[in-house]
Amino acid sequence: MSNKKRKIELLCPARDYRAAIAAVDCGADALYIGAEGFGARRAATNSTADIARVVDYAHLFGVRVYVTLNTILYESELKEAEALARELIDVGVDALIVQDMAYREMNLPVELHASTQVCNMTAEGAKFLEESGFTRVILERALSLEEIKAIRQATTVDLECFVHGAICVGHSGRCYLSRSQSSRSGNRGECSQPCRLTYDLVTERGEKIISGKHLLSVKDFDLSARIGEMIDAGVMSFKIEGRLKDDNYIKNIVSYYRQAIDKALESRSDCERLSVGESEIEFTPDPKKSFTRDGGEYMFSGKRSGVASFNTPKAVGEYVGSVAVVGKRDIKVITRERLNAGDGVCFIAGDGIIGTNINRVEGNIIEPNRMEGIKAGMEIYRNYDHRFTQNIERSRTRRTIAVSCNLNITQHNITAAFTDVEGITTTASRSVELEEAKNIAKMVAVAEEQMIKSGDTIFRVTEVAVSGGEWFAPAKVLAEIRREALALLASKRAEQSIDHDIRSDDGTARYPERRLSPQHNVVNSLARHFYKRHGVEHIVEGLDSWATTRGERVMESSYCIRREIGECLKRGSKLRDRLFIEHGRHRYLLDFDCKECRMRLIDCSEPENRIKR
């Protein structure tokens, strides 16, 4: 039986170089970052040179860097996409996260991770990806714990799961709602987020059941309490969403999940974290203090209601109290937490939401920036904690690698050997002529004091052993040797190679389906060749390339509006009419697959809804 421990990874987003460094310093085991093109977040792109800088810093701690190239590729883009992929490989990235199977046909010498945009929801699909050369499968957010377990039992491939952040209401890679309303497509990194808009729910007879609500806007993810269960289920990578989030969000959320995963690992001796180094932060992380749409567990425990936020798609924040008395320019509040000038707050009563900042606070009297609409009895939520944010911004974050030092002093030589937690050792020495020390104990103390310093390096010297204290070694010389040895150790760590699992594809795996629909997103010759090699007989061109989505399925979701409003057909709903949602001239039929417990949206908009690529 192998004694090799399972590696557990905290995977964190990086909008840019600065966010990447913050994520590493706060405890990330891996990063995912966008390149100059072909990523699913067009607003989060980075030059290859900047990604190379990220790689250089991350690899010092054994932190992996994955680049998102997870859009679909049109024929004219294949050469450019391959060239970019090879540039990224040359600067040392550890994997490419891809959606389009064209990358599998390019014979790239790098790990390929199957993006959640591949819509990874079944054991059969995950098994196929494993057999066709993917190192990792990134699972759809809507899966339950039991579904994750089933995929694990059928595969040995690395499984990655989202644990925090925004949720796409549509199954990833199979949503064309943005494409149905504009030229912007989620599969091309330009989703306009129409799922966060207001819609009317109407029957086919024209009866309006719900008016002007955010019917497709679901709450955010927070599975921090389920980390241990997920490790036991076979998940190895825990992914935080947020490549568009700022540095404060990264520092807070990454630090929080670092602590949660470390706690789970304490009781699991067969597992260990992927990278090395201990993070030092000067604040107490709290996910409620960062942007969140009332984080929940979505479908992790099975299909359920209560996952949507009909009244607002924005971050309302944490509940802090209520309005007692409303004056002309200020209000008296009853709060369980102190509010401060500069805080952002929301006042809520029924369907009404009023957002504003606080200008002044005196005891339980606050002066909002705006008073319109605020009434006694309204609940107060804080969605921006000014003091907490200031604390993060002012706090120092640092990540260090523990090292031990063996210092040997002789009459003619001083040698220091530094060894880090992974056993990497470097030495530095000086040929000198030393006199006998007048006080051996004092000399040993001075030597220990000098060698335990680490300055602004990435190291923390935790142990110093001194031999030869009978010889007097000048503090200045000891400091020079220490600095030289630690610099050499940093260089040696930078040169260490990271183990990769780069797999090939011999074409013998059979794709679970013989026919590919427009929702399989095949729009180029390399992707077609991939699927043909794996037994697919008929391929319909991907929906993104069509002139219009009218009459087509533009979303499939594990979320169900009927379930959410208490009108589930499986539970005896008396509302038997066909249902539609409408926003302006955009109209969608709600098609309910009760056997699979899924909802589909069919585009029934007016004929003038045309799309141009």
Distance between the termini: 55 Å
**Biggest pleated-sheet summary:** 8 strands, parallel, barrel
Helix content bin:
10-25%
What is the CATH architecture annotation of the domain at 6-167 and 221-275?
A: Alpha-Beta Barrel
CATH class of the domain at 6-167 and 221-275: Alpha Beta
Give the spatial strand order of the biggest sheet: 1-2-3-4-5-6-7-11
Do you know the CATH topology of the domain at 6-167 and 221-275?
Answer: TIM Barrel
Structural description of this entry:
This protein has 613 residues and is an alpha/beta fold. Among the domains are: 6-167 and 221-275, Aldolase class I (TIM Barrel), CATH 3.20.20.70; 318-394, Thrombin, subunit H; 400-495, no CATH class; 517-546, no CATH class. Helix content is 23%, strand content 27%. The chain contains 13 helices and 29 strands. The strands form five sheets. It has an eight-stranded parallel barrel with strand order 1-2-3-4-5-6-7-11, surrounded by five helices. Strands 9-8-27-28-29-26 form a six-stranded antiparallel β-sheet. Helix 2 links the parallel strand 2 and strand 3 (64-69). Helix 1 packs parallel to helix 2. The radius of gyration is 28 Å and the shape is globular.
Outline:
The chain is α/β, with parallel strands linked by helices and 613 residues long.
Topology:
Elements: E1 6-14, H1 17-25, E2 30-34, H2 48-60, E3 64-69, H3 78-90, E4 95-98, E5 111-114, H4 123-131, E6 136-138, H5 145-154, E7 158-165, H6 177-181, E8 199-203, E9 208-213, E10 221-222, H7 227-233, E11 237-240, H8 247-266, E12 271-273, E13 278-280, E14 318-326, E15 331-335, E16 344-349, E17 352-362, E18 365-368, E19 379-384, H9 386-394, E20 398-409, E21 413-420, E22 425-431, H10 440-451, E23 459-467, H11 475-495, E24 515-516, H12 525-533, E25 538-539, E26 553-557, H13 561-564, E27 579-583, E28 586-593, E29 598-603
Parallel strand pairs: 1-2, 1-11, 1-12, 2-3, 3-4, 4-5, 5-6, 6-7, 7-11, 20-23, 24-25
Antiparallel strand pairs: 7-10, 8-9, 8-27, 13-20, 14-15, 14-19, 15-18, 16-17, 16-19, 17-18, 20-21, 21-22, 26-29, 27-28, 28-29
Helix pairs in contact: 1-2, 1-8, 4-5, 10-11
